[in-house]
Amino acid sequence: MTRAFTPPDTLSKDDIRTIADVRRDIWTNAFWGLGVGSLSGAAAHGLGQLAQTRGIVRGLNRNTAFLSVLGGGALGSFLMATAAGKNQVHNLHPIFEVGKKEIPPPRDGTPYQRALQAAQENYFDAGKQRQQQQERDVVSTARQQAVVSSAYADDDFNIHKRRLNRVMRRKTLQSTFERGGLSDSHGGSWVEDERSGRH
Fold this sequence. Notes:
about 200 residues
């Protein structure tokens, strides 16, 4: 048995009658829609056949007639039942409230409110940490600039050091080219070459 025959004890006889009236209205409109849609599908197919005799449309036969009637019936039934349900739902709103239990919210808030509060606290804590990190970065950058500026204070020493590095790089490149040039494999020297003494 369905629940329609055994409604809950919380519903009054008027509530049960209202639910039955809404259900009956939806089913009645669905069947009206089935009839109207089927007739509309048949009429549309008849107009299509008329257009086919004049050469505007091709390919209509009894299969397309069957499809038109069934498709129109299904569409009409769906549309009229949906419209009836939407028009009658306001009668069910008081019934939705029957048996409703009022639950007072907890003192510290609902789980959603607690999660929201924790997320906001984490967001503000992260903002403070980000600001502190930026302040530390500024101080660190200032210290590094001070170290760099003191290192470059003696220009003569730095110029001499750069010239010495340039000379060393040139010697390294020259020795690399003398040994066989630059190579991606084994630095330009092979094991057999080292054993035989060839370069």
